[in-house]
Amino acid sequence: MDSVTPARLVETSCKINENLSSNPIEAKAPTCLLRMTVEEPSTKEDEQPTRKDYVMELPPATLNTLLEDFKKIREQLSNIARK
């Protein structure tokens, strides 16, 4: 039976995009540009793993939701570790 290997996070970077505009109507709220490089395992033994880049633009509300969810996961893992 073949084993399944998950993708591996190789690199991340985060940048705040302020979307500045002299016109207040065109100005947007700042966003977070999150870039991740993921290494996908090869399907054959003689192949090298492939790397894929993913870029996400997260508005403040989405970023807050993501951070809150990470906080909940951390708390759950801490509770499990204490048992």
Automatic annotation (TrEMBL):
<protein>
    <submittedName>
        <fullName>Uncharacterized protein LOC107267956</fullName>
    </submittedName>
</protein>
<dbReference type="Pfam" id="PF07258">
    <property type="entry name" value="COMM_domain"/>
</dbReference>
<dbReference type="InterPro" id="IPR017920">
    <property type="entry name" value="COMM"/>
</dbReference>
<feature type="domain" description="COMM">
    <location>
        <begin position="7"/>
        <end position="73"/>
    </location>
</feature>
